[in-house]
Amino acid sequence: MTHSLSSGGPVSPDIYRQIFDMVDTGFCIVEMIFDGDRAVDYRFVAVNRMFEQQTGLVDPVGRTARELVPGLEQHWYDTYGRVALTGEPARFGNGSEAMGRWFEVQALRVGDPAERRIGILFADVSDQRRSEHAARESEERLQQALSAGHGIGTWDWDVTTDLVRADERFARLYGVDPDRAAHGAPIAAFFGRMHSDDRLPAEARIEQAISSGGEFIAEYRLIQDDGSTRWVAAQGRCRLDDQGRPVRFPGVSFDITDQKRAAMRQSTLLELGDRLRDLTDIGEISYVSSEILGRALGVSRAGYGVIDTGAETITIDRDWNAPGVTSIAGVLQFREYGSYIEDLKAGRTVQIADVARDPRTRATADALRGIAAASFVNMPLLEQGRIVALVFVNNAEPRPYDDDELALIREVASRVRAATERVRADEARRQSEEQFRVFAQAVPNQIWAAHADGHLYWFNDQVYAYSGLDKAGLAGLMAWTDIVHPDDAAEAGRRWVHAIMTGEVYGVEFRIRRADGAYRWFLVRAEPVRAGGVIVRWVGTNTDIDDQRRFADTLEEQVAARTRELMVAEEALRQSQKMEAVGQLTGGIAHDFNNLLTGIIGSLELLGIRIAQGRLADVERYSLAAQGAAKRAASLTHRLLAFSRRQTLDPKPTDMNRLIAGMEDLIRRTIGPGIELETVAAGGLWSTLVDPNQLENALLNLCINARDAMPDGGRLTIESANRWLDARAARDRDLEPGQYVSLCVSDTGTGMTPEVIAKAFDPFFTTKPLGVGTGLGLSMIYGFTRQSGGQVRIYSEPGEGTMVCLYLPRHRGEADGVEAMPDLADAPRTSEGETVLVVDDEPTVRMLVVEVLEELGYLPIEAADGAAGLKILQSAIPIDLLVTDVGLPGGMNGRQMADAARLVRPGLKTLFITGYAENAVVGNGHLDAGMHVMTKPFAMEALATRIRELIQVK
Q1: pLDDT tens figures, 241-265
Q2: Of the ranges 42-46, 726-730, 781-785, 812-816, which is most confident?
Q3: Residue 382 in contact with residue 347, Cβ under 8 Å?
Q4: pTM of the model
Q5: Is 874 within 8 Å of 861 (Cβ atoms)?
Q6: Integer angstrom CA distances of residue 149 from 145, 166, 171, 215, 250
Q7: Which has the closest alpha carbon to 882: 854, 910, 857, 905?
Q8: DSSP string spanning 397-410?
């Protein structure tokens, strides 16, 4: 088949083949192979010579791509398949890892669409891509190297055109637009930011390099937009043509700001140390350090001042100022220059780069610029959280202050502080030594000093006057032992050597010879004086104790006797305090007993009348009324006896809520009707291990104190609670962290001042009138609570009332229960008719006990006093049990009678029934075996049960 060119003449296929092979672009025609709509391969139909050369494929015609290039990427199939299906040409650049090449490709559909053939033009651009990649890598390596070496960037100056081409970092640092620098800018454009002091030297070195073709090396400063300064080191070399004319001037610049600042910091601190070393005037130290700091930072002014935070002023004695800058020494008002005083009060450093921009100084910018402070740093110097001074740096032009500069200011201030403290310490030492000399001469004691090695070198006049010796006779290591008593000298010297070797305090008693030859006892004591942990000298005193030693033995005896007297007095006062509380109860108790007795007497009278009238239906009602009143009276007397007992602590698991409820009636009677009583019992209250009687005593005392604080009435609240104290709460209450039960008594009374609260627990301290109180109430409560492992705290304000809280440790266990009141109907009866001797001087009590015994089957015998009872006990009558009152008439009490009876009846079982406290029977602290006690009043059933238990014991 032949084709015609546009001229109309026929063209041979060989012509096309020749043209096809001659083009320098790879070309091929491929037939796409699909799996459904997805291209999975293609077969080469025709290729030219350049295609094989650029792709490296040999004899590809008739073969498929997957056969020729097994790992060819899928995107080639997808792209060519899309062209074959849609007819839309594609032009792209892509690489193939499988072929190891990069191609610029143009693909278009050819022929009948149904044949799915496309023509592809290839251009192998692998070398170009590798060159570009190598150039990028080279540039990246250069930038990395520059960054590692603090490089700013590279520049290349075409001297003939006066155009400098530079990279972006270089351009930005020099203040030139990066795009302009990339295309070339005159060299003068790069000098705009150069520090005025550095520009002429830099230009001179450039001229020298251009004229000689030599190396260019220069260091200079560049001022940035924010006013900060960067140090730059530039290196380059000018290239000359054959005629010696400058052509190109390439180079590189490095940022050496950090190195310069480090060197500046080091030189500044070295100079500071050298100049401060010998200064002894604090004002001169401040000025010299300000000068060094100001010159190092290149600012207009530097100095120190003292801040008065209350008046908001700063006092400056002297400041350093750069040439042409006026001093601001004097007193300045902070508020006239802005609001930043608030930051200084909070201990914060104030750094302002531009007073016209900072909101704290914008309104006062003109005033600040007027004192050459367009930018400044105010750094407060703190000591124990208090501002002691201020270091300031001012500059007439805006500029920032970076962290390195702030660190230098802080370091200079620290060294000035140390130098100031050194001067003050030296002055204090001089004053201290002078004060010591004056003091040592003024006191009556003998005072001496020794070097660190123990050689004595100084003595006050009292030593010379006492010994009659001069310095030559006392100075040295052991010369002083010549005036020590021969019996004491060896030990005194040995102890002195030991103190010198160990650094321990020297303390010994020995006799020293007086000028007239007499010896007196002295307490000799010496303390080491240390500096930096090293002993530099010893200071000692000789105190005359001769008179004290003479009376030491007598004094010890007097102290012992006085101690015994105080212990007896304290014990008496403790009991007196209890009885004082009891005494305060008597008014209310008498009133309540009258009410109870009225109920008992009235019920019994009506009982007798109804029996005489034969109206037996009312008998039980009056009987129950009498019994109820009697039981309430018994409960009241039991509490009074328990309260008045003298005993050591007997801790028991205690339910505090139950204890409070049991005392509520007693407390109401004590405080009277004018005071409202409220109890707040916590639910689920833990038990506590405490002596319940002492706790009742404490609660009653607190309620009495609260009553006395409310003479016009008020409200008294008793509250219990569980408390879990963490470390902070426990520390506030002087307790260990843990679980506690609290008992708080609060009132709405007069309250206490802090001074009264501080003394409230002191023994004998009271605010009550003379003779009204002993002042032991709260001290006893404090002692009992602390002994129980708890703590007491008072919370009060004058006029607002008082709350006293007891905190007692939680006891992990159940509280002891309360026994129910017995009933005579349940009393055990006997079947053996045992004999019981009843001795009581009260006929009514004797009659009741005898009738109960007869009712229960016992054989009772009566006696009205100790003599009659003893006569029966000394007879041959068999006695199984003796029941006797303690307080009997006739000169013989119940205990004496029982003891006498046991001489003829060893092991006689005895039950004492008494209206006194139990200690009145126990006496010396114990009962003999077989002896027991019951306290009146008691229920008849309880008596019967106790008698039965004692008789049955073998």
Answers
A1: 888 889 888 888 888 888 877 877 7
A2: 42-46
A3: yes
A4: 0.37
A5: no
A6: 6, 18, 18, 20, 18
A7: 910
A8: S-----HHHHHHHH
